[in-house]
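Q: For a teaching handout, I want to show students what a protein-ligand complex looks like in token form. Below are the inputs, and the small molecule is adenosine monophosphate. Please produce the holo structure.
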Amino acid sequence: MDCIFDKIIAGEIPSDKVYEDGEVIAIKDINPSALVHILIIPKKHIESVNHMDEADSALIGKLIYTASNIAKKKGLSSKGYRLVFNIGEDAGMVVNHIHLHLLGGQKLGAMV
Ligand code: AMP
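A: Here is the structure, written as tokens, with adenosine monophosphate included.
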């Protein structure tokens, strides 16, 4: 297993976990870009949004739903937050396992 997120999911390397169920895990980003920076990751290894099948749609939708619940718990819902999927090189994707970035807790800058 060569994927760092698969290793985190397997408990082989430590993480700061904020949520886990049978299908997804959410961890604090090790190098945060905002005061709140959480990664919501499916336990199923899917390389990127480019590699999704239609059958993965509900699972990827669950990442968004999970992010919204975490945002609510952290009191971000009313002030706002940002959800981002990076896909491929131009987006700066470095970990090839789908993950949704939840960014917030402060005024966020421009998108690009
Ligand atoms: P991306 O550019 O979308 O591939 O983002 C990958 C993210 O994973 C980056 O924000 C990294 O800081 C984060 N990251 C990498 N390794 C770890 C780790 N061991 N624990 C938590 N976050 C990590």
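A: Two things your students might notice: The CA atoms of residues 43 and 110 lie 31 Å apart. The beta strands are 17-20, 24-28, 36-42, 81-84, 100-104.
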